[in-house]
Design brief:
Number of helices: 9
Low-confidence stretches: 210-219
Radius of gyration: 17 Å
Mean pLDDT: 85
Strand content: 15-25%
Largest sheet: 7 strands, mixed
Number of domains: 1
Order of helices and strands: HEHEEHHEEHHEHEHEEH
Shape: globular
Helix content: 25-40%
Structural class: alpha+beta
Number of strands: 9
Amino acid sequence: MIDGFSNFIERKAKAAGRQITRCSFDGQDSIVGADYVFTNHTNFLMVEFKYEESDLKREGLKPRRLQLCRILDDHDDWRDLSSQCHYVAWTEALKPVSQRKRFVNFNGYYDEICNRSVFGEHSDLKRDVPFGDFKVKAGRLADDFLSGKLGIDFPRFEQYTDWLTSLEGSGSSGIELMVDDHTEDELILLDFPSVGSLKSWLDTTTFQPPTPRKSSGPRMG
């Protein structure tokens, strides 16, 4: 699903005369709560991918995510930032199921995950169930992102991701990205000490994320 969505939004960007860069939070996804960051070189959006709706419940097994949800419940400023740039995606079977088709849904991470149906009544989170008023399918999300209606600018994205990594206690905001090095014809892992250094690199690089691989089945965190 990750590669499929990446190809989908890159195709829509090309048709609109825009550019999309996709980068993997390789090794950092458990800290920031997202698999990939997408940028149209104006706005930034980070997405955690799940295969189907039942997999969303697995977030309830992660103490880091409960800590995040409790803070978002209590702090309007961080919740507002999160709602604009931090999303979760999953597939949903098209009915009748015999058609063997699945849509890809997107919702804000806070709206979909931060509730007691995911973490249990003992979590004391404010919401009972997910808030679905802003749930969209892939086409709408891609259009809104490319038009600037979704995502946040770099200074605010840096603020949000630095804050997420600070919750680990180290204050580190380093990010690791895997890219194709065309000059060496190799796949390499790059370490960035901050999201700011990542942005500087994205502004000048000719490297690309790894070419999507064929998958034998769903593999999402």
